[in-house]
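If it is no trouble, might I ask you for a protein's amino acid sequence along with its C-alpha cells?
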Amino acid sequence: MKFRFVITGILAAAFVGALYWFNFLFKPNLIKTIISSQVPPPSTVTSEAAKTEQWIEQLASIGTLISSHGVDVTSQVAGIVTEVYAASGSDIEQGGPLVQLDVAVEAADLASAKATLAEADVAFKRQIDLIEKRVTSEANVDTARAKRDTAQAAVAKIEAVIAQKTIKAPVTGRLGIRKVERGQYVSPGMTLVTLQALDPIRADFPMPEQAIGKLRVGQQIEIAVDAYPSKVFKGTIESLDARVAQDTRTLLVRGSLPNPQRQLLPGMFANITVLVGDARPVVTVPRTAVTYSLYGDSLYVVKALDQPADAIAGQAAAAPKDGARKLVAERRFVKTGQARDDRVAITSGVAPGDEVVTTGQLKLNPGAAIRVDNAQPLVRPEERPKQ
C-alpha cells in the first residue's frame, strides 16, 4: 500500500511539472517563435526622387491695393448744379469737365466788371497822353492807373469764381459713383464724385523687421488677387517707410505695378511676394513627403535592404542580381525651407536623387518593409471655389 502511494505521488508530481513546463516554458516560446516567423507584408507606398531646382528667395506678405492718385472731387463754392458731365464708372482725362454750377450772376458781374475795366483803361490812356503834353499831373496818372488795375483785379476775381464753378478732373482716372444730380444745391466741401488713378496702381503691405535687410527699392514683386486667381501681376518696390511700426514691429512697403487694363481696383485684398536676390539651387521634395511635428520635421527615404547603413546619401542602392529589390523605409529628420506650390525645400537631411516616400508614410515605422507602386501617383486636387 505504501509503495502505491509513493508511485502515485511521483506520477502526480511529474504531471504537474510537465503541465507547468508546457504552460509557462514551452507554450510561450512556441508562440514567440510563431509570431517572430510571421513577417508582415510590405506596405505599399508611392515615392519620388528629390531633385535640385533653381529657386529665388521669396518673402510673402498680405497687403491692400491703393490708387496712385485718389481724390474726392469737391466744390470750393456753393451753387446750383446746371450740368453734370460725369458718368459713374467712366474714364476721364485730366482737365475734363465733371460738374457745372450756375454762373448766371457771375456772368452778369463779369460783364459789368469788363465795362468798368474798359472805361478805366480809356481814362488811363487819356492821362498818359496828357502827361506827354505836360497838361496834367503825375497824381492824376497814378489815380487812373490804380483805377484800371482795380478794375482788372475785379474781372480776374469774377473769372476765378466762374472757373471754380466749372469743376474739372484733377488727374486722369476712373470716376466712382456720382453723388450729385442736375438742379441739386451744392455746398462748399461737398463730395461730388470720387476719382481714382488706376494706372499705375500701388500696393501697401507690411514686412517683418527681420526682413528689412533684404528689401531694396526696385525689387520685383508678384501680386495675386482673388478676383483673378489664375493670374499673377508683376511690379516693383517703389518706397520703404522711414520707421518700423512699434505695435507690430513691421515696416510698411509700397509697391507699384502697371495696370493698363484697369483690372486691379483700390481696396482689393492682395497676396504679395517679394523676389529677393538671384536664383540659387535648392533640394526640393513634394510637400506630402514631409511629416511635421513638435519634435522635428521628418520624412521616409526608400532604401534597399542590402544597401549598407553607411552608404552615401543620394547614392542609389545596387539591386540584387535577381532584380528583386527588398526595400525598407528609413526615417530621416530634416530641416525644411520655403514651400512653393506643392513642393518644399530641404536644407539638410536629404540629397538630390534620394527616393522619398510621398504617400503611405502614416502606416510606416522606421525599418518597415515597403513596396513602391507609382502606378497611381498622388494628383493635386483642383482648387475649390471660394464662397
